[in-house]
């Protein structure tokens, strides 16, 4: 199983990068984080479309695309662990995608096999990476029978 996180924006050195690294280093599954960024000043609609193009170009061929979006399905940590375990057992190649400040382009959402929500609150897209990594780490620990997860 390979886990890819394709995220819009560059994570600069600081507390969010440290938190991202903290969890990424604890994940034992093969993990790749790819950052994509459009530097030109574009209208919000054009920027969202362009970021969609950059995400599509970064997607590994044959990967199961899991879009993080506020309109997606919210899972409990246990349910996420079960799904991650099923993907692991199927030796899936996963691509979690995180959009920019404007969200994900409709073409990415339409092409995703799964759409997940981190909850109904609005989260900064750069924080969403750390939150996703923590949930992947938590799922890994749940699947290993480790007491990290508490209900």
Describe the protein.
The protein is an alpha/beta fold and 151 residues long. The longest helix is centred in the last third of the chain and has 19 residues, at 125-143. The protein has helices spanning 15-24, 44-58, 77-89, 106-111, 125-143, and strands at residues 2-8, 31-36, 64-74, 93-98, 114-117. Helix 1 (15-24) runs parallel beside helix 5. The radius of gyration is 15 Å and the shape is globular. Strand 3, helix 3 (77-89) and strand 4 form a beta-alpha-beta unit.
Q: What's the structural blueprint in terms of helices and strands?
A:
Layout: E1 2-8, H1 15-24, E2 31-36, H2 44-58, E3 64-74, H3 77-89, E4 93-98, H4 106-111, E5 114-117, H5 125-143
Parallel strand pairs: 1-2, 1-4, 3-4, 3-5
Helix pairs in contact: 1-5, 3-5
Keywords, separated by commas or semicolons:
five-stranded parallel beta sheet; alpha/beta; 151 residues
Order of helices and strands: EHEHEHEHEH
| Percent range of helical residues | 40-55%
Distance between the termini: 27 Å
Structural class: alpha/beta
Strand content: 15-25%
